[in-house]
Amino acid sequence: MTSSDANVDGDLDIDIADPRLEQYAAEHTTPEPPWFAALAEETRAATRAPSMMVGTLEGRFLAAIVAMLCPRNVLEIGTFTGYSALSMAEALPPDGRIVTCDISEEHVAIARRHIGSSPFADRIEIRVGPAIETIATLPGPFDLVFIDADKGGYLAYYEATLPKLAPEGLIVVDNVLWSGRLLAPPESDDADTRAIRDFNDRLVADSRVDVVMLTVRDGVSLVRHRRAAPAG
Asked: 140-167: per-residue pLDDT in tens?
């Protein structure tokens, strides 16, 4: 989901990032390969919430993470139309694979077409169904997990994937700033805002992990296993 203006309580009007700065950042980021343009165009034309697509800046961010980690086993929770899966697949090592899951047949149909016509169709496996059930069927370990799905499920997805995260693995969680709504008084929260607020609070208090929240687009948290303190 993209960052956007949010008038969350009638008084608070927030840009997570100045749109002009985001545009400047995108213009000074290496462009995505040409097949992404057709995917982005169809997503905008054929879906009710095209802002769920990660887009150029976050797509290149995910590709950079994959290029640095060189993961062999990637799990994506929330395929949508396939933009993020393709962004990650582009940077995978030759033996790397992505399992991406989504519950929407409508969205997955778009993803299948564009993934199938890309050079990376053999690197991406799409699973349709409740993500928590898909996770249970996968043995791991996951070198990289990208969570970008229903907000009420975030905590469950995190708890299901953390035990299967490789020792040097990384969990990337999208939309953790939720268009600035988290800065409004909690009594004004809707269900999704409460879910994100609770998830963020639980995550930073979790002694099993280290987390850094970044102001990339709508907020991205990076989560890794906490290392034991050096002896002495």
From this structure: 999 999 999 999 999 999 999 999 999 9
| Domain at 97, CATH number | 3.40.50.150
Check whether the bond before 139 is cis (ω within 30° of 0): no
Angle between helices 35-46 and 83-91 (to 10 degrees): 160
Residue 12 has pLDDT above 80, yes or no: no
Full-model pTM:
0.89
The residues near 124 (Cβ < 8 Å, ≥ 6 apart) are 82, 85, 86, 89, 97, 98, 100, 115
Q: Count of domains in the chain? A: 1
H-assigned helices in the chain: 19-27, 35-46, 55-69, 83-91, 105-116, 131-137, 154-161, 191-204
Query: In the chain, how long is the greatest CA-to-CA distance?
Result: 60
